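pasting for the record
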Amino acid sequence: MTGLLTRFKARRALRAALAPLPETDGLTLDTCLKATDHALVYAGTLDDEEIVVKQARGELAEKLAFAQVEELRYQHPRMRDGPFRVPEVLIARPEAGLVVMTRAPGIRLDRAIRDAPGLRAAFVRQAGEWLAHYIAPRREPDTFGGGYWIKRRSEALTELPPGPDHRRIGALIERMRAVRTEFTGRLITRARCHGDFCPINLLVAGDEMWGVDIQNSSWLAVAKDLARFLVYLEIALPAGVHDGPWGLSGEDYEGLLAADGLLEPGEAEMVMPYFLAVELAGRLMSERHDAFMLSSARQFADRMIATPV
């Protein structure tokens, strides 16, 4: 919970937003999943069906809600059956920032891995296959630039006090610059990606894998979504064996990238060090409140910095 909202105020605010909509008659709000100054998210029921109600808040609320609806309505017809799934939009009122969708079944991927570590390799491979299926219709070649994230991470670094983490992030930015110097202008793969592709946004339900928190799919380098997943996985659930490139678990790395239709041959070796550094630097800045995640991120950064660029 952040900002001025409390769970009580969040429920009351969401009920007030839903009240004028006749199609929400019979809708109940049960569990608060998120309540921030930017979004309210509740689990509930509508006509005995389990649902999720999300209200975007703030100046961009309508734009964000519209983008989420547009994306889910594009993906759901092709991901309503089979092993790779997304929720269905039931009610959309973007002008109020509101989206009501079916609730995806299953348990979060990070919890599934924690509960059944012997299935980690299979789950990670399945996650890569989910992303490959998601991006398949909207995937194209692009040229690598690299300047945007160097600028973003360098600007954020100025807000961090001097110390070991400042030096770690600085070293990661230098690795980003080295990759940019060598590979600017080379072809990479971009696609309409999830944008926040990580284990907490994937649910495992039997043989199915569901993607959630799909807010507004963005055109991104596919390698960035893959790096986001690998960095989160390694700092939240450290593999313990780091026999892969750049301080990663080889099994995690190879399994996630095994699916056809993700990257072109040689692309991972070229740009994954850049995007891993982007995501890892971001985690070193954002995980200040979580001692375990921050410690894991520091250890991962030290391993990566020690490897050749």
